[in-house]
Specification:
Layout lengths: L7 H18 L4 E2 H9 L26 H17 L13 E2 L1 H11 L10 H11 L6 H19 L5 E5 L10 H11 L8 H11 L10 H11 L2 E8 L2 E5 L5 E5 H16 L8
Antiparallel strand pairs: 1-2, 3-4, 4-5, 5-6
Helix pairs in contact: 1-5, 1-6, 2-3, 4-5, 7-8, 9-10
Length: 278
């Protein structure tokens, strides 16, 4: 969604996307199915109550929604229902509609620290923030996104303060550990990720040399948590640590976010014994 070199056509497309999202944000309520599809990148019917078997992409209606986008929407609906379960496991009072901002706030909490939150969740939040002062002109929104990316690149060029940090020692994963574990998780729909198997395979192949692709960063940190290997981190202030994320940009994460992610996902990614390491 963001680019430091947006062409005129790309800006026009971004304007159209922003206008579509803002139109949805201005509605008084969403059904949960509509909200789940929107943040997963699927174009919903106005009052949909379930996720269809096929659909089109929100960002490009001419393109069919991917299986992963549809699965993500189903997962959001299931997560919503689970959050309203009674002690006996019944779901008798699950709301079927919600105000857009309330639904997004619930999603933010539900997916805090998740490996792969719904693909458009943060983008919806960004535009919802603009909504507080009324709809912003779309060219202004696009320009702000462009400037944000410029700022991120400039920050990445500053000399880093590198601190080598280790996590407690634990047993080395066996060959193919991550791929086998991810295979089970995907099959059981415990985790839905567009490149889940590629991530797991990359973790096994690059062990213990390190990983630099953006979508593998969190998984590398989990691998580090189990192995006790060292990893080069840098701190921009006492509360923000940054990790290598691609060839140019360093992605910032708060320590709290890192801790929360490890707590939430350690067992899923590292197996039943993963909970023994910090």
């Amino acid at each position: 969604m963001d680019s430091i070199d947006l062409t005129v056509e790309e800006l026009k497309k971004l304007d159209r996307v922003n206008a579509t999202i803002i139109e949805f944000l201005q509605r008084p309520t969403w059904t949960i199915a509509v909200g789940a599809m929107l943040i997963s990148g699927v174009q919903p019917a106005a009052y949909a109550t379930k996720i269809p078997d096929e659909g089109s992409q929100l960002l490009n209606p001419a393109v069919a929604a991917s299986l992963n986008q549809l699965r993500s929407a189903c997962s959001v609906m299931e997560e919503w229902a689970e959050s309203y379960e009674d002690d006996d496991g019944s779901r008798s009072d699950v709301p079927t509609e919600q105000a857009p901002i309330d639904f997004l706030l619930w999603c933010e909490e539900a997916y805090r620290g998740a490996i792969a939150p719904p693909e458009l969740l943060h983008y919806f939040f960004r535009l919802a923030g603009f909504q507080k002062a009324g709809p912003a002109p779309q060219d202004v929104v696009a320009r702000l996104l462009e400037l944000e990316q410029h700022a991120a690149v400039e920050r990445s060029r500053q000399p880093p303060l590198e601190i080598e940090t280790s996590l407690p020692n634990a047993q080395q994963p066996s060959p193919g550990h991550f791929f086998k574990r991810m295979e089970v998780l995907v099959e059981n729909r415990k985790i839905i990720l567009p490149i889940a198997m590629e991530i797991a395979e990359a973790l096994d192949k690059t062990w213990p040399t390190g990983i630099r692709q953006p979508r593998l960063v969190w998984n590398h940190l989990l691998e580090m948590a189990k192995s006790g290997n060292h990893f080069s981190l840098r701190f921009t202030d006492p509360d923000i640590l940054e990790v290598p994320c691609g060839t140019h940009i360093w992605a910032p994460y708060t320590r709290d976010a890192l801790d929360q992610f490890l707590r939430r996902n350690r067992v899923h990614l590292l197996g039943a014994n993963g909970g023994n390491s910090q």
